Amino acid sequence: MPTRQTPGTYVERTGTRAIAPAPTGITAFVGHTLEGPINQVVAVKSFLEYSQNFGGLAASSELSYAVLQFFRNGGEKALIVRVPELETGLPGLSMVAGSSSSYPMGLGCLEAEDGFDLLCVPDATRPRIPNGPVSEFKIERMAELWRTATDLARRKRALVLIDAPVEAATTTDLKAFAAALPRESGAFAAAYAPWIEIDDPLEEGQRRKCAPGGTIAGLYARFDKAHGVWKAPAGTGAGLNSVKNLTRRFIDSDQEILNPLGINLLREFPRHGLVAWGGRTLALSDEWKYVPVRRLGNFIERSLQQGLQWAAFEPNAAPLWLRVRQSSEEFLHGLFQRGAFAANRPQDAYFVKCDASTMTQADIDQGSCLIEIGFAPTKPAEFVILRVSLKTPPPNA
Asked: Could you tell me which of 215, 220, 166, 212 has the C-alpha nearest to residue 191?
């Protein structure tokens, strides 16, 4: 132990194993591409790399434009799964229909992949004709896919970014869209509207309508790097890069209706331009209704799961439990110091339990080491209330 010359409290590391933060902002894209390997997960770190593997932009591929916008808005790594254009045209629906022979298709390819925390299926809402006004698939088929995707996201501790249909241009349309959204695993999904317009690289001088999910995924990645997953990717600082216009302009009265339904609107404001103006999941409960709260929970779970793998096959007894607690507490304390939790003291911000109170003798006999973790997340200040009082002069003043 080093000699201390100044009175005070010092922190010294013991033999704990540091838990590395799980990567975030990595987005899996599933859908139609111009070319490339089918039903395989391919990682790309730029749109150039995407083009080399999958042929670049294609008018019939919403996925290609979503990936382009992902990298333009701050994304750094994407996982691409190309699916064949079969009768349904939708990736993964054969899984829902119970066709085991085609189980590895589309979303099923991600079952063995743990390297993503966002999921987009842009072709689910693609227009019947490129840049057209009507979606190719009916809302019932979209909903079927969204249920499959959110269930996958729940298992993988990820978040699905759901695009509203291209034709959802009014508050009434979006209320119908909200009614079709999956709520069972709603905490693992967030819905965005309306569609965006970008300059189309394939049609010089023309604009292209695009699903917003790829742009939003890039925004998430940008915010993760700058602020952390506990910061809502929304507000006046959440600018939409390379977006020229929105297909529909919503106002405060629209948002008053749609916000409680979990529809996150893209808006335009003077001096701030086009921004994401919503940060809710599809969860109906207060506990997980905010995107940054759910993503922080996902991030902590994924980080601890990966960082505590060394504990497998260790003797399941008090010395192991102590080391697990120490490693977990050190990781959570690092998040506390970065402002991830809504508390001023560590003891109010988080707790870790791993002892005889979290597992029975039967659990121990079966080799189960059970850890209980709690944390106090920060929540977005959606409604900033300004109380203004006017002091009038007294009579005869």
From this structure: 212
192-248 per-position pLDDT tens digit: 999 999 999 999 999 999 999 999 999 999 999 999 999 999 999 999 999 999 999
Q: Could you say which DSSP state residue 290 is in?
A: B
Q: Are strands 41-44 and 78-82 parallel, antiparallel or unpaired?
A: antiparallel
Read off the amino acid at residue 178: A
CA–CA dist 141, 161 (Å, integer): 17
> If residue 216 lies in a helix (H) or strand (E), which one and from where to where?
helix 213-226
Q: What is the CA radius of gyration of the chain?
A: 24
Q: What three-state secondary structure class fits 159?
A: strand
Q: CA-to-CA distance for 80 and 53, rounded, in angstroms? A: 10
Neighbours of 174 (CB within 10 A): 24
Instruction: Judge residue 333's burial from the number of C-beta atoms within 10 Å of its C-beta, 0-12 exposed, 13-18 middle, 19 or more buried.
Output: middle
Q: What CATH class is the domain 27-292?
A: alpha beta
| Cβ-contact 283, 294 below 8 angstroms | yes
Domain boundaries, the chain: 27-292, 314-397
